[in-house]
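Subgroup meeting minutes
Present: P.N., E.W., G.H.
Scribe: E.W.

1. P.N. recapped why we're keeping a running log of single-chain structure predictions: easier to compare across weeks, and new members can see raw inputs and outputs side by side.
2. G.H. added today's entry (220 aa).
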Amino acid sequence: MSKENVLVCVSYPESAGQLIERGIKETKAFQSECIVLHVYDPENDTSDMKEEEKREEIKKWADFHKATMILQPRQGSKKLGEIIGEVARANDVHHIIVGQAFRSRWDLLIHGSLVNELFHELEDVDVTIFKIKKDRVAAESHYDKGVSGYLYKKEGQYKIALEQPQGEGHEGIFFQHLHTDFLTGIFKAKIFGHPVVLYVVEGDVHERYQEELDTILEEK
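Output recorded in log:
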């Protein structure tokens, strides 16, 4: 039996809560699942952490509402409508909710409409568009510019240092939270080919990453 899942497409954390709440309400009418999709361009990941921070904020909203989160990197020249269509078909989606900034009629005429792309990609799928004001889509980063840091393990605890530790250390970039004097923020690195993004509190990596890091380092 079809579950008639709902797909909520979120571009900005400022609108994530409202859009996901609407998706959750839709799922209550059926025994279905609310799926949150955020499509991003990997080439836009810069050292100021704005893109990474934006994704983490959207994921927090999805976790809060117990929705399934899909972070989908944009690949090649695929249109956004194509990507959403592929995700919708793979997850038995019957209703799509999209947040889209206000656009003028001239802008729509020149650049086309996401709704038209979705109608071209999908049949028998309802699409709801929520208009978002452009002045709500800009978000200020809460992290300082990245500096070199090192991931290491001491007495069973993963830690971050700004200087090369004794023994084995894995170099990456540490982004300190602007509102603290402690070693608290985000550490981003590629360890043996595996990209990792870790929350750090006063020099200690959050325990939720313990299993992931153990698995990566055991594959060495």
